[in-house]
Every structure is written in C-alpha cells, then in structure tokens.
Amino acid sequence: MNLISQIKKIKKKISGEILFNESLSKYSWFNLGGPAKVIFKPKNISELSIFLKSIKGFSKIKVLGAGSNTLIRDGGFDGIILKLGKNFSHISLLNEDTLIAGSSLLDKNVSNFALQNSISGFEFLSCIPGTIGGGVRMNSGCYDEDISKILVSVQAMDSNGQIKVIYSSDIKFAYRECNLDKSLIFISATFKGKKDHKKNIQKKINNLIKRKKNDQPSKIKTCGSTFKNPKDNKAWKLIKNSGCGGMEIGDAHISQKHCNFFVNKKNATAKDLENLIFQVQSRVLEKTGISLELELQIIGEKL
Ligand SMILES: Cc1cc2nc3c(=O)[nH]c(=O)nc-3n(C[C@H](O)[C@H](O)[C@H](O)COP(=O)(O)OP(=O)(O)OC[C@H]3O[C@@H](n4cnc5c(N)ncnc54)[C@H](O)[C@@H]3O)c2cc1C
After folding, report:
1. Which domains does the chain have, with CATH numbers?
2. Is 73 one of the annotated active-site residues of the chain?
3. Between 20 and 30 A from 221 (CA), which of 1, 33, 137, 260?
C-alpha cells in the first residue's frame, strides 16, 4: 500500500486534521514554499502515537513549530509534516521554580508565565518568536542565555510512537544545536529557573525587548539569523565587511538593519533565497577565509 492510501486508512481512526498536497507557505515566517505531500495535526499524544505506529518504516517526517527558522523549498516537502497544535501548548508549575510547557507553546508565553509566577531565567524567551519544540532543537537563545541553561528534561516521542524522557544532563548542547536524535518529536519540556521579584523580571524583559528592537528588524518576512556566528566573530559583521550588504536576488534581500537577516520582500522564491545564501557564503569565504555555517534549516525539494 502506498503512503497516501495508508494515511487515508488511518484518517478513519483519528480526529486530527490530515491535509494532502497543501501549500506550506503559511507555515514558515518567510511565507513561501511548495506543498507538503501530507500535513498531520494530531489532536493529542495518543493520536500521534497511533499515526506513527501505522506508518512505521516511513521516515520522511518533519515537525514544524512556528516556522521561524525554516526555509521551505519551492518543490514542497515530499513526506509528512507534523504540526502540533493547541493540545500541545499547555503550561503549568511543577514546583515554585520549575515548570512544564507543551512543545507548541510560543516562547514568549513561557516567558510571560514565568513572570506571572515570579521565576527568573526565562526573560530571553520573550525575544524569540518560535515554539518550545523549535527552541529545544535549536538550543535557541540570545544575549548570553539559551535553552540549555534552563532545561531540566524533554519529553519526546520516537518514531515507534513511544514516549521517552531525556534529561538535559544527557544532551550535548552547542551553539544553536543539540545532539538529540533528529527523528524525535518533542512533546513537552521541563524547565527550572530561580525565584525573583516580578519587578526585576519585568525590568529584564523590557531591557531585552528594547535591545532586540534596536538591533534587529521587525515586521518582515524573515527567519532571523541566516548563519551562525563563527567563534569569536559575528556573521553580520563578516557579511557587511565582505561588501554583501546590498546584495539581492529577485525579491530576496538582505535586511539593511541586520545583515544576517535575509528577507522575502514580497514574492521571493525559496530558490532566490537559497541562491542569495550561497552567494553571500561564497563571497564571505573569498574575502575572509571563513566558511559561514547555516543556522537556518532548509527543508524540502528543489523545483
Ligand atoms: C525575527 C526573528 C528573530 C529571531 N531571533 C532569534 C534569537 O534571538 N535567537 C535564536 O536562537 N533564534 C532566533 N530566531 C530563530 C527562531 O525563532 C528560533 O530558532 C526558534 O527557536 C525556532 O522555533 P520554531 O518553533 O519557529 O521552529 P521551526 O522553524 O518550526 O523549526 C526549527 C527546527 O526545530 C524542529 N522542531 C520544531 N518543533 C519541534 C518539535 N516539537 N519536536 C522536534 N523538533 C521540532 C524543526 O523540525 C526544525 O528542525 C529568530 C527568528 C525570527 C524570525
């Protein structure tokens, strides 16, 4: 049985939405990208498990959070996109300085919840437009803070539909990455902060948001930093100093405010953005001898 007929059969057993050949453009902050063969939005953990058990052996599965770090190619995704919705966005206290958050919850909502409960350490999440799932995968962070510093454990489902709990101490985190198996689907994460006065926490949040507004552009179709900062250097500086600031391909541009933010000005294709990325990478290498590494995740098929 082929994948589509297999999934049509599963559809009868579950209530979560299953879409076929649906455009992915609204699932990425770049607002572009071709269709997914299948998009599955499980209603709950048990549906997700049933689904994974039923398609056992099929490995081309990708979870999308807010899509704020993912460029989807014009040919779409020739597999299954998992989109975890409202039922994966719970948050609650486990004790006075520890909380558990669903993986589809937006980072800023976790920061707000921590503020309301007088827990410090989560302020940086107010500046990151992704979900907790994306944050764990990317070890997202800013201004010297990142997920690895507050994570206690992550609850994940493997490709056999089994739940696992993985402790932070067993995960190797590095700058914008971690060594968790790529096939794992994060369900929720447990974090620990420190008790503090609300007033102090609010002040930290306000300062970080102000810094972000000064440093980075907003209200544009971007996925944030395109390249990782090399050790002891800044990607935006290397891009600027290599004379790439004004480079553009079609509607794919480089932000005037922050050279490491690439932008879909209006009707850019993923190909335009990918070509721009490649040209900038080559020019920086040629001028500085430094090979910039992508922070952005690129998924899908070229047209
Ligand atoms: C304006 C702007 C500013 C930004 N600023 C920052 C910043 O300051 N610091 C920073 O680190 N990043 C920043 N980013 C990048 C981005 O917001 C982060 O990487 C964010 O954590 C990605 O989360 P997401 O849910 O959007 O992930 P997505 O883009 O949806 O996915 C990213 C990766 O995570 C995986 N993933 C997502 N959810 C799950 C899950 N439940 N289980 C398993 N894997 C999952 C995906 O498969 C993919 O590999 C910025 C982006 C924008 C647009």
Report:
1. 9-86 (3.30.43.10), 88-214 (3.30.465.10), 218-299 (3.90.78.10)
2. no
3. 137
> Active site includes 176?
yes
Per-residue pLDDT reduced to its tens digit, 156-185: 999 999 999 999 999 999 999 999 999 999
Q: Is 121 in the pocket of ligand 1 (CB under 6 A)?
A: no
Distances (CA, A) of 6 to 11, 51, 55: 9, 10, 7
In this predicted structure, which of 48-62, 154-168, 250-264, 287-301 has the lowest mean pLDDT? 48-62
C-alpha of residue 187 to centroid of ligand 1, in Å: 15
Locate the ligand 1 atom nearest the alpha carbon of residue 218 and give its number.
1
Confirm or reject: Cβ of 70 under 6 Å from ligand 1: yes
- The ligand 1 atom at the shortest distance from the C-alpha of residue 223 is 53
Question: Which residue type is seen at 39?
Answer: I
pLDDT (0 to 100) of residue 2: 85
106 CA from centroid of ligand 1 (Å): 10
Average confidence (pLDDT) over 260-271: 98
Closest ligand 1 atom to residue 146 Cα is 11
Q: Is 145 a catalytic residue?
A: no
Q: What is the DSSP secondary-structure string of 128-172?
A: --SBHHHHHHHT-EETTEEGGGTEEEEEEE-TTS-EEEEEGGGS-
Q: Could you tell me what percentage of the chain is helix, strand and coil, using 3-state DSSP and rounding each to the nearest 5?
A: 30, 30, 40
User: 10 Å Cβ neighbour count for 102?
Assistant: 24
Flag whether pLDDT at 223 surpasses 80. Answer: yes
